[in-house]
Design a protein that fits this description.
The protein has one domain (about 35-225). The chain is mainly alpha-helical. Helix 2 (about 35-65) packs antiparallel against helix 9 (about 175-190), helix 2 (about 35-65) packs parallel to helix 10 (about 200-225) and helix 3 packs antiparallel against helix 4. It has helices at about 5-25, 35-65, 85-100, 105-130, 135-140, 150, 155-160, 165, 175-190, 200-225. The protein is globular. The chain has ten helices and no strands. The mean pLDDT is about 80.
Amino acid sequence: MKPRLKMDGLLLALVVVVSLGVYFSPNFFYAQSKADDFLDFFGLLLILSGSFIRMSARGHKVACSPKGWGLAQDGLYAYTRNPMYLGTFTIGIGFTILFWPWWAALIFTVLFYLRFRPLVAKEEKYLTEIFKQEYENYCNRVPRFFPSVLNVFKIKLAYECPWHELWQTKESRTIWTLPLIVFIAEMIKEWVLYRGRPSLSTFLPLILALIVFGIVLAFEYFLKNGKNPK
């Protein structure tokens, strides 16, 4: 096993252990059900969005550079140089606010930066050596991580993230496995943290998040401009 993967596994195990300890400390969490419901709703939306970003980025890279040597500069790569990391960060924030106190998102952000900043710097050095001026021009044009807010609203999903590219890698499995994990974890949280049996109201914010996400995709790919995804 690679040292990096081994370290990530150890960190993940530590997070799981700490999470179980926090679950037995209800004072860390919101007592108001409305606040908890909102965080559940928003958290799952972030997880779905992050999964979508990773699906699109991975699928587009495979479609445009099947041999792995082309520099992807369109699709989501036209808005951020690291859409895969951006998707991972979005998923992580979603899980954090779903199952931890809201302020844990700040801690996660710092840890994510410390973990991935060296990886990004190493990758950028490698790409500069391979693509030289082409990559430097790309860096001057596209931000490293967070895309411009104005550009985000200009994205046309059906064109920037073609429907067929979303489903041609194993990354597409996360669009249903991650929500499944959320539903199971929510049941456990209800049993352990609140000492109650899960009911429909427990899952309602999560169901609403799935519906909203599905409506947005349906509008962007099937209804907007009256065109079907290719």
